[in-house]
Specification:
With about 200 residues, the protein is of the alpha+beta class. It contains five helices and eleven strands. The chain folds into two domains: about 160 residues, Fructose-1,6-Bisphosphatase, Chain A, domain 1; about 35 residues, no CATH class.
Length: about 200
């Protein structure tokens, strides 16, 4: 089953985006599987790391999206952005993080993803998160739901398994033994403090 987002004359097929992130993942893994001395690790202005894998994945994604949907602009973490005065008038745009978890990539723990989302007036309406090291793809389309596509176990991986419908689990702040999962490389910070405050407030 295919899932398509539509808004006026705009029609975006989730399969096109999935193919895009899978191809980007392949480019990442070619570098990941090589000697880490060849990764070309440098620091960006915010002191976060950048590798050849980030740039390779970004090139694949931007090229494929621009070819498939030339009228939808792209906002990517690794590409120079258009001025805000121009961007704020966009009805639709792509939001791209070609390699989310570069620190994890460098640690070789496999915990990094390729992320692409389509925004409508600043709100995500289609999103795709692909895990290169497992072959799993999580995707969602407004009005259609959210799904998990696992890598096929058919020898060549050419035919994916059937998509599984997924949904966020419901919870209450007062639930016992509530567990929060966070980034290994970004511990603490405002998000952790906000959770701790909310959890403490719910007990009053």
């Amino acid at each position: 089953m295919t899932h398509t987002y539509r808004d006026g004359d705009v029609a975006v097929d989730a399969e096109v985006v999935i193919a895009c992130v899978v191809e980007a993942a392949s480019a990442i893994l070619q570098i990941y599987d090589a000697d880490d001395a060849s990764w070309g690790v440098v620091s960006k202005s915010d002191e976060s790391p950048l590798t050849k894998a980030d740039l390779a994945a970004n090139a694949v994604i931007c090229e494929r999206l621009a070819k498939a949907y030339p009228d939808i602009p792209i906002v990517s973490e690794e590409t120079k952005q258009a001025p805000y005065d121009e961007r704020r008038g966009w009805r639709h745009c792509w939001c791209v993080d070609p390699l989310d978890g570069t620190k994890e990539f460098i640690k070789r723990n496999g915990q990094f993803t390729v992320n692409v989302a389509l925004l409508e007036a600043g709100t995500p309406v289609l999103g795709c998160v692909h895990v290169p090291c497992t072959g799993e793809t999580y995707f969602a389309v407004k009005g259609a739901g959210a799904f998990l596509r696992r890598k096929a176990d058919d020898g060549d991986g050419a035919t994916p398994a059937a998509d599984e419908a997924i949904a966020c689990a419901k919870f209450s702040w007062t639930d016992p033994n509530l567990v929060v999962i966070g980034s290994r490389s970004h511990k603490g910070g405002a998000a952790s403090e906000a959770f701790a405050w909310k959890k403490a407030s719910s007990k009053r």
